[in-house]
Amino acid sequence: MHVLRISFISCLLGTVLLSGAKALAGDIRRTFELPRVEGIEIDGKPEDWKGKGYGFEILLPQYGKHRKAENHNASMTLGWTEEGLWFLVRVQDDVWHKKARQKDPIAPDHVDLYLRKVRLGEGSTPYHLTFNPQFGTQPLKTSYYGGLEIGPGNIDRSVVPTVAITGGKTWYVLEGLVPWESVDLKAVPGAKPLFQLWVQDGDTLQNEELRKHRASFHLGRGTSYNGNDMHVLKLMDDTKPRLRLSAVDGYDLSTFQSYVKVLARGTRQGHGVTIRQGDDVLAKGVFEAEGPDRVSAKIMLPAPKDGKPYENLTVSYEGEDVNTVSLPHSVAVGQLKDLLGRKAEYAKLFKVNEPWVRHLDTPVLEQHRGLVAAAFTLLDRADPPSSQADFALLSQAAEAAKMGARGESYYDQKRGCFFGYIYSNALGTGSYFLCVVPDDYDPSHKYPLVCTLHAGGGVLESHNGAVDRDYIEVFPWGHGYNSFRGLAETAARGVLAYVLQWYSIDENRVYIGGHSNGGNGTWFLTTRYPRLFAGGSVSAGEPLKHLLFENLGNMAILNRCGALDTGQPVNIIQWAESRLKQLGHPMDLRIFPEEGHGRKAPFDSAAWRAKNVRDPSPRRASHSCEWAAHGESYWFTIRRLADPHRLGRVDAEVKRKNGRQTVVLDPTNVEVLKLDVSGMPVDADKGLRISVSGAVREVKAPLPAELYMVRGARGWQLKRTWQAPATKIRPYRSGGAENMYNGDPLLIVYPTLGEAADMARLKEAARTLCRSGGAGEMPTAAFPMKAGKDITQADMEHYNLILIGKIADNRATQKIWPKLPLTLERNKTLKAGGRRLDVENAIVSLHVYNPLAPQRLVYIVTPMEGANANPMWTRALPFFLVRGGAEGLGAVPDLVVRGLTGGVPTFRYGMQFTHGWRWKPQNPRDLAFRFPGIGKDDFIRTSRALLDANSKADFLLDRKGSGTSAPAWGLDTERTTGADWLLSNSGDAVALSVVTGKTVLDLGRALGKKAKGRRGQGLVFYPPLDPAKLNPAKKYTIAFRHRTLRAIINSHGNLPNVEAGPRYTARDVLAELMKMERK
Fold first, then answer.
1. Which residue, of 8, 148, 227, 1029, is most buried by count of CB atoms within 10 Å of its CB?
2. Cβ proximity of 243 and 263 under 8 Å
């Protein structure tokens, strides 16, 4: 089978080279002796810098490989006078990325400069400038933003830099002076200010590891990406010029040798460079041209004589030491010969290319499968491995494959901080995570486990330092995108399962937490899988209103947030706190008045963990789930839902009275419930009474390990065993496209049978879709893709398929379509479930089982008559894979028809399957309801009526009517029925705040001001405010929709308090619209 893997295309090994892209792995907080400079004019011209200052050539990214010189190339020179810090930055860039919005300094290409007087935590604040070259006009201009960052959103701009810029179409020179008074520094010889500089390339990074490319003064490990940790500039009392050339380690897989690559500016072409070990010359090289203003010398090294990896080799240029470099894999490179020679053998042994195989011959092979698969994916890429991380992976895999084949464990001997790998069946390769194991780890001892989820844009990196702690910590990567939903949820769960299997973990002391994006993920995973964790620690994470908060009754939740945080505002977190309190699950909420999105206040995590230990057998437990796969609670598991579109819930309690033990069960929408009797807080040597929905069953002692409650035609039946009936067809589950990202092998299938230009566009769209993990883009992973004409029966049996393109253009869709439970008439009318749907000029999305391989799924996105010519649908292809929303997985349609009138996707129809993949009947009354004449203002009146009905407030705060009958955006008023509308919309939750009359007036004035952008969102009070009738000291209750909280905060700031009110659903909205129509 030939499967195309994005960026991972097989290639001949031949002369594959590995060149480290991270310079100076040990480069932590270095001190650079900065000379004085004299006679320089700030005019953007570099000529007067010749023979002056400290030159740094070439700036490299801290993570990932460096780009070709013509793509992005940067160098800088620094110097000082008593007046300030002088800088000159040279940049080569092939694509200028301009700012899209006026106040968006970090999206386009830019230069970031940071200066501190002392380190973070020592009473220092950073002076941070962002320079934006103004491209498109000559001569070039630059603007800058920033100043002294006093606090969140508080910047002192009183000290301004002097800057100038020159340049052409593909290059610029930025020159400037930052006064020392910006950080209150007295510039004298010996002073040690701290400095950092980034040169950002804002190009869109398709198929690259980073969202942005950053050439940085921070060349190595241990340095921060956020400007808080900087190198030291020691001010020297001389003008002697100094030079630093970038040097990176590399490894040649054709000769199994190590080498050093030295990079410099183009002016050094033809010059020699030397690598020394102490006083001994190891090798020499000559600089050769590599691109605009860049030369390099690749210097091959002999194998280390003492059998130890090279450390701190000296790089010498024209008699001056210009860098040091270590080669940690200079010994291990020889071991790769065995890995490459036995690659086919190992691939078969570890089932690397068979993602449909869940279990291998031995547990040890399973333990190392992810590591070996990741290494082979790396070797199969079109571009050769090119970073220290790449080579570290290959070195580990070489040893692990050899040991695993002998039945020995490589990871059992690992201690400290290192990368582990799970095997992703969905992607068919390894997925990494960071693992931190105590140096004195003893498998006979049970350890707490801490799972830390990274923030948005976070990067994982190992270190070689000592690990002296009493717990194990893991950092799931989740394929790198800013969500722990979709496939990232599967990855995080996989990491937890892996560590629980292979390390000695106290399962009652498993904790999860994270900051920002990691905090969002913590909320999501704790509410979906509560029995796994003793506690969740959230920092600046948002609790979405539709999460299953009722599941948190037996878990400690800590939420730390800053009162000045505009990204995750306090009021939204207070709403969740109120909701949890109403459920009887109080949250430990800690608000820091002077903090924003970041955390500075100390936190004793060890004390918090020690205080919160999981009770594996709580007397009382409640659990809700949208899928039975998420139905496991502490001592019961929901095994089957009665209606796959409704929430399943069980409230359970063990009671004791008069020597009798009873378990009381209150299930909702549950057909099969498993009772883990061995985990219940009951005495197994005594009888047990089971009360379920009023019916009572008696179980005699001794109690079995498990029991099942099964609901049938005669009510609840008690069974000692139960097995899900075998079916030829995969059981139906709600959620639409959510099912494609649950961890099963997935293949993206593109068309080839149409017009060449269309097929090229769709193939590129398929490449983009390969990098979508369901909840966002995956910068470091991709699903495989394959042409529809090449899909075999084995592919269908092994993979779930996403089929894109016109039916006539995709051979795989041609085979499957005639066997689906629908028919298409002349590409204009779709007949399904007794309905006739107009699909002309529309995109059809369909989630269904594969009739040619009934245990697998297909998701079809196909344009109908007139729609294929519109390029919008291919640009936004992931949008047409319909997943869960605020109404939950049960409300997601399996069949969606969207029109493309005017290029805007307009929802027309939605339908669902139910058990057995039968079309779910839709309410005739809902089908009869149409939307002609119903406009935006009608929806506003509806939401206001629901707010009023669900609160006893003095004032309602909601959208302002337009006074017109304009139709609601995205609604097809002629075709869409009420039944369809229910599957594309959601209700909301009510929020309440008790405030003084003065605050009501202040809020009214703030909302009445002309809003910038969409901040105000047109919110007004109902009834209208009358200042004469408001008592400024009196308390009033205001009610508003949860989704308007950010608009209120953006206009006015946080309210003094927020409480959670009732929720209302899309059906409630539709019922209100129907009442309005009758009136």
1. 8
2. no
Domains contained in the chain, number: 6
3-state secondary structure of 803: strand
**Pick from 766, 882, 771: nearest CA to 479:** 771
**Helices and strands, number each (H, E), in the chain:** 18, 57
Statement to judge: residues 660 and 753 lie in one domain: no
Q: Residue 842, exposed/middle/buried by CB under 10 A (0-12, 13-18, 19+)?
A: buried
Full domain range(s) for residue 628: 620-719
Q: Which residue, 662, 689, 719, sits at the end of a domain?
A: 719
Task: With respect to residue 3, please indicate whether it lies within any of the assigned structural domains.
Answer: no
- Whether 802 has a pLDDT exceeding 60, the answer reads yes
Contacts of 1005 (CB under 8 A, 6+ apart): none
Please say if the pLDDT value at position 83 is more than 70.
yes
**Size (the chain), residues:** 1079
- Assess whether the previous peptide bond of 779 is cis (omega < 30° from 0): no
151 burial class (0-12, 13-18, 19+ CB within 10 angstroms)?
exposed
Give domain status of residue 409, yes or no: no
Q: Is 1064 helix (H, G, I), strand (E, B) or coil?
A: strand
Question: Are both 602 and 639 inside the same structural domain?
Answer: no
Q: What DSSP element (H or E) covers 656?
A: strand 648-657
H or E stretch including 926? Answer: helix 924-928
649-700 residue pLDDT tens:
999 999 999 989 999 999 999 999 999 999 999 999 999 999 999 899 999 9
* Residue 894 to residue 919: CA distance in whole angstroms: 10
Q: How far is CA 302 from CA 14, 240, 283, 616, in A?
A: 20, 35, 8, 58
Cβ(650)–Cβ(637) below 8 Å:
no
Strands 688-692 and 695-699: antiparallel
Examine the domain organization and report whether 941 and 908 are in the same domain.
no
**Predicted local confidence at residue 386, as pLDDT:** 65
Same structural domain, 433 and 537: yes
* Cβ-count burial 281-309 (b if 16+ within 10 Å, e if not): ebbebebeebebbbbbbebebeebeeeeb
Distance CA 937, CA 957 (A): 15
Neighbours of 268 (CB within 10 A): 22
Q: How is residue 870 annotated by DSSP?
A: -
**pLDDT reading at 3 higher than 60:** no
Q: Are 369 and 423 in contact (CB under 8 A)?
A: yes
Q: Which of 220, 240, 260 is the last residue of a domain?
A: 240
**What pLDDT does residue 24 have?**
30
As given in the structure block, the two tokens for residue 106 are 């970090």
Closest C-alpha to 177, from 54, 75, 37: 37
Q: Tell me the one-letter amino acid at 182.
A: S
Q: State the average pLDDT over residues 339-353.
A: 96
**290 shares its domain with 191:** no
- As a whole number of Å, the end-to-end CA separation of the chain is 63
- 1023: preceding bond cis by omega (within 30 degrees): yes
Residue with tokens 């799970």: 422
Alpha helices (H) in 724-859, listed in sequence order: 756-770, 793-798, 811-816
Asked if the model's pLDDT at residue 354 lies above 90, the reply is yes
Strands 505-515 and 535-539: parallel
pLDDT tens string 497-534: 999 999 999 999 999 999 999 999 999 999 999 999 99
DSSP state of 772: B
| Whether residues 421 and 564 fall in one domain | yes
Q: What is the pLDDT at residue 110?
A: 87
Question: Helix, strand, or coil here: 1054?
Answer: coil
Query: Can you tell me the distance from the alpha carbon of 1046 to that of 1049, in angstroms, rounded to the nearest whole number?
Result: 5
CB of 594 closer than 8 Å to CB of 570: no
Residue 731 CB: number of other CB atoms within 10 A?
A: 15
CB 426 within 8 A of CB 745: yes
Tokens of 104: 């968006």
Quote the distance between the C-alpha of residue 508 and its chain's center. Answer: 27
